[in-house]
Write a structure and sequence with these properties.
Elements: H1 2-12, E1 19-21, H2 28-35, E2 46-48, H3 55-63, H4 67-91, H5 97-102, E3 122-126, H6 131-134, H7 141-146, H8 168-188, E4 192-204, E5 210-213, H9 217-222, E6 227-230, E7 258-268, H10 270-279, H11 283-312, H12 323-327, H13 348-356, H14 358-362, E8 365-366, E9 372-373, E10 377-382, H15 398-408, H16 412-418
Helix pairs in contact: 2-4, 10-11, 15-16
Length: 428
């Protein structure tokens, strides 16, 4: 876990600055359990914030007269969360990795065949989509969450939030400002979209835990994979008869002609706008432009996934869903992102990047900690089978981590570092 390493190094180096943690793959629980013990003091606390825009109120509290009370409250909250977390671990039972594999999710691929072969196998660069094409696919709910605006039931979501007595007027003003900037960005073409899609022959590995990718049918027939996506399986005991899921379960084994899709997309141009607004000391417009870039790229991902289903792959060429249905995930298949709950290992991004040449063909790169750059970027695997589903791996045991490290050809400590947030044991 790179954030744990950073916190430890800051402590060793004698840093005195508060450490604010945020982003899509972070949580308050992770901050309390993994990060806080390595750096938190009354002088320099470790505080989870949902995103950069919300850090303003936190920093104001840290600079205010009541800093000590503010930090003490957070410290006490994190202490309680840690105690609850470790108490929960003591009460929770985990299957061995072998037991979990025996109770895997089993799709009858004879009864429900894999999706037909894509209309175009291989790599496709997508550089023809205009911003105005994706606007109908924007989900505005995360936009209001960025600005800490939440309506109360029954006015929680967009557009009902405008009717909320407490935040409705502010939400409407914010939305109007966003619409004005959105139109300006489109008119001036100050942002643009680009991405790359890969559709490849794929099959489960012999042990059913990974997914082999082949460049073409000849390679599949020869049993010569181009790459392998290593997957993780649920191990925490369930109170019912539900299977223990892995993304590998959604791909057919050898003998079937299955496929796996993937894509990486970005919204370019936001950095230049941010620099412009920073030079003008206009923090509001800076945050607004970043929030809109995030909305554009998420909408691009939604739009592109539809194009993959209905045209590039074409397994759902008769799909008739409106934008609202898409946001409710009423289509067949899923698009989980590497590093998120169903495959919480960010190193799997490197496999995808190598396969689809995301940096060379679309200009989307990975940092040393495997964050995508530009920041307004989305990547995902595309599973077509109608029985595929979203899930969270949850915590895993050392027996699975040892197997995973061996399959990835990682030293065990390296695998444990990347999987640190989901280990059910304390690593050395």
């Amino acid at each position: 876990d790179e954030m744990v390493v950073v916190a430890k190094e800051m402590s060793k180096a004698g840093f005195k600055q508060p450490l604010l943690i945020g982003g899509a793959t972070t949580s308050k629980m992770h901050t309390a359990v993994k990060l806080s013990p390595n750096y938190f003091t009354l002088e320099h606390p470790v505080i989870h914030v949902l995103d950069a825009s919300r850090s303003v109120t936190v920093v104001s509290s840290l600079l205010g007269e009541n800093k000590e009370d503010f930090v003490t409250d957070i410290m006490e909250e994190y202490d309680e969360m840690r105690e609850d977390y470790y108490a929960g671990l003591e009460d929770r039972y985990f299957l061995t990795f072998e037991q979990a594999k025996e109770q895997k999710f089993k799709i009858d691929f004879d009864a429900k065949s894999p999706a037909p072969a894509p209309n175009k196998v291989g790599i496709t660069v997508v550089d023809y989509v205009e911003l105005e094409n994706v606007v109908p696919y924007i989900d505005w709910n995360p936009f209001f969450q960025t600005w800490e605006l939440r309506g109360r039931y029954p006015n929680r979501g967009y557009p009902k939030i405008f009717d909320d007595e407490a935040v409705g007027n502010e939400a409407r003003k914010l939305f109007d400002d966003a619409q004005a900037m959105l139109k300006e960005i489109i008119a001036e073409k100050s942002m643009h979209l680009k991405g790359v899609v890969g559709l490849f022959p794929a099959n489960q590995s012999e042990d059913g835990e990974d997914v082999h990718i082949y460049s073409d049918e000849d390679s599949r027939a020869a049993g010569n994979p181009t790459a392998t996506f290593c997957m993780l399986r649920q191990q925490a005991e369930k109170e019912n008869e539900d299977p223990y899921l892995s993304q590998a379960d959604f791909i057919a084994p050898a003998g079937y002609k299955d496929h796996l899709g993937m894509f990486a997309v970005s919204c370019f141009g936001c950095e230049a706008l941010v620099e412009k607004y920073e030079a003008e000391h206009d923090d509001y417009s800076k945050i607004m432009s970043q929030a809109l870039a995030d909305r554009f790229v998420e909408a691009f991902a939604e739009y592109l996934h539809k194009v993959i289903r209905t045209e590039m792959w074409g397994y759902a060429n008769n799909e008739e869903l409106n934008e609202a249905d898409l946001l409710k995930i009423k289509y067949d298949g899923i698009r989980p992102a590497p590093g998120y709950p169903s495959q919480p290992d960010h190193t799997e991004k490197t496999t995808m990047w190598n396969l689809i040449k995301a940096k060379e063909l679309a200009g989307i790169s990975l940092s040393d900690s495997l964050s995508m750059m530009p920041a307004a970027s989305v990547s995902a695997l595309v599973f077509a089978h109608p029985d595929s589903k979203y899930f969270a791996v949850g915590q895993v045991g050392k027996d699975q981590v040892e197997s995973y490290a061996e399959r990835k050809k990682f030293e065990l400590p390296v695998a444990e570092r990347w999987l640190s947030p989901i280990l059910n044991y304390e690593r050395d």
